[in-house]
Amino acid sequence: MNDRTTIQELHSKGYSNRAIARELNCSPSTVGYELKRGTVSVYRYKAVEGQSTYELHRSECGRKSLFLRRHKFIDYVSHCFHNHGWSLDACVGYALAKGIFQKDQVVSTKTLYNYVDLGLMDIKNGDLPEKVKRNTKTRRARVNKRI
Predict the structure, then answer these.
(1) N vs C: which end of the chain shows fewer Cβ within 10 Å?
(2) Which residues contact 54 (CB under 8 A, 6 or more apart)?
């Protein structure tokens, strides 16, 4: 916020982008982007406006989780798993085969297993019989000592 105030003061005094950049020890294009972000009227820059625009853009960036957008399908999978004893893969396959959910409303089986690992679903790793049976340790070949 301090740099934005400096930009506002120097810009109001008529300094160029390069002169402001030299003062702040940054690139002139950075100053230009900041002036573009925080310009309220034609030639008027406000640091507070630049900060609020930055925070708005920052809150909207990044990939949004499918877990929140596809909660109906995840509830369906949880219901089928607990009540019918189906595997996660069977839940996905049945939902697609019977047309209960469209392709864009379903997450993959791998994603469901990731959600279980992260603890986002009410299914635990101990509830999955195939996952408990698997040995995930890496196997190393024994090295010949004579070599």
Answers:
(1) C
(2) 37
User: Half-sphere exposure of residue 144, counting CA atoms within 13 Å on the CB side?
Assistant: 2
Instruction: Indicate if 48 and 72 belong to the same structural domain.
Output: no
**19 and 51 belong to one structural domain:** yes
d(CA 77, CA 99): 14
**pLDDT average, residue stretch 115-126:** 86
Q: What average pLDDT does the chain have?
A: 85
| Amino acid letter, 7 | I
For 32, 66, 129, 145, the CA distances from 44, given in Å and listed in that order, are 13, 41, 65, 76
pLDDT at 37: 80
Extract the tokens encoding 141.
């070949």
The 10s digit of each residue's pLDDT in 130-147 is: 766 666 677 788 888 887
Which structure tokens are listed for 76? Answer: 């369906």
The residue range of the domain holding 127 is: 66-133
- What pTM did the predictor assign? 0.51
pLDDT band at 42 (very low <50, low <70, confident <90, very high): low
CB 56 within 8 A of CB 45: no
